Amino acid sequence: MNRGRSPEPLDFFIWTVEDVGLWLEEINLGSYRQIFKENGVNGEYLESMSTFTTEQILRFIRRCHMKWGDFIILCKELRRIKVACLKGEQKVRRPWWAPSCFSAVFTNAAKRNRQSRVVSLKLEP
User: Which one of 14, 40, 70, 96 has the fewest CB atoms closer than 10 angstroms to its CB?
Assistant: First the structure.
């Protein structure tokens, strides 16, 4: 991600540990930034949380010393990002690691493939 600015929500599954830390600050969970960094929590890990079992969730909460209320905030914010991606409300941009000559190719492919990027989204009433 570009340093000095917030990570793009659409790209949360490719966020680095540092991007996750910036996002935690944005959602007022910055007190967990260091522990998430120590545990290597990146965007791919956040994406996989939607498939966690109860035991894995409890292990994560214990390992990160999270309060239940903060964990719920984290999950709600992740869901908000996923829903926005699914609805097409997020701006699509070239990943930081892709050469600029791929900008148009990546943007077009991402727009066509938007739903597969949030396949683990579970919509609950």
Answer: 40
Is 78 within 8 Å of 52 (Cβ atoms)?
Answer: no
| Residue given tokens 């260091």 in the structure block | 34
Answering whether pTM is above 0.90, one says no
CA dist., res. 80 & res. 65, Å (int): 23
* Phi, psi of 23, rounded to the nearest 5 degrees: -65, -40
The rounded distance, in Å, linking the Cα atoms of 17 and 39 is: 9
- Identify the three-state secondary structure at position 16: coil
Distance of alpha carbon 103 from alpha carbon 87, whole angstroms? 21
Strand residue runs (E) in 1-125:
none
pLDDT single digits (tens) 14-32? 788 998 999 999 999 999 9
- What is the torsional sign of CA 32, 34, 39, 40? positive
